[in-house]
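Possible regression after last week's pipeline update?

I re-ran a chain I had predicted before the update to compare outputs. Posting the input and the new output here so someone can diff against the archived version. Not blocking, just want to make sure nothing changed silently.
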Amino acid sequence: MSRLILHLTTLCIAFAMAGTGAYAQIATDVAGRSPWGSHDEIGTLNMMTDQSRLDILQQVHSGKVYDLSVDLFVGMPTCCAEAFGDPAYQIWKTHEPTRQEGGALVSHSSDTILMNTHTGTHIDSLNHFGLHGRIWNGISASEALGDRGWTRSGADKIPPIVARGVLVDLAAFKGVQHLPASYAITPADLEGALARQGSELRPGDVVLIRTGLMTVWPDKSQYQLFNQSGLSLEAAQWLVERQQVMLLGADNFGLESFPSTNAENFAPVHTYLLAEKGVPFMEVMWLEDLAKDKVYEFLFVAAPLKLRGATGSPMRPLAIPIAARG
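New output (post-update):
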């Protein structure tokens, strides 16, 4: 019982600090320390509990399932191949059956894939970005980075996610197919889109941002990293500190707007969310079907591959409509 009381007290303190803005003042451009303790490796996903999962499961009112992931295929757009020289997605056969009729009784086929862990629809682990050599919870590379990756806050530590999800359709709010290149979404944009939809955010939500960029997928000439629209730092701060979201996602490559206007930090939203606040997030999400059907609130279910120490992992998120609740 005492452990439960301590956990609830920690949650209340974390929420209160976030709501007042005090949490934001713990550090600036410095890796944050977790209110969930020195051993925490999942950050805001600690907001998810057995009770919160049960509550949202009980609100499901439809059997329709929305797949929020994209196909993986050779030649697909990838952020990291074009921008950083990482391997592009590849798949090849390692075993195949004979092509002649009357072959062996049993046909055996298998294949192998090569890909960066940030390919296609994926989640960024808290060890993906750091500040001054430290990742979330003040962990330094010297103490937790080995030849095979980080020993802390990897994709294997991310639990299955079952939570209330909210789509924020910025493209519809602006009345465009997709937001302009490098457009930085503001807090006012988020408030306006939510008001248009009649949606509200609640602590512990999974919030998915639709820029509309998936309307040009998979055209590599238009779906690119360094000219994409996305969240501004101020918008990310509004979501985390004012709305107390648990997890973020978007239909673009990097969640945030690129290129950065910060001369010293090419990815300020990445470092703010992952290193300072312990908020993981998802990228390259397929949100077109939700937007088409105007499904703004839903049960969100997803889990990454348990890639030990990895900075990210492919995933296949699902959304199931829930009943509106006042």
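Follow-up from reviewer: compared with the archived run. The first helix runs from residue 2 to 20. Marking as no regression found.
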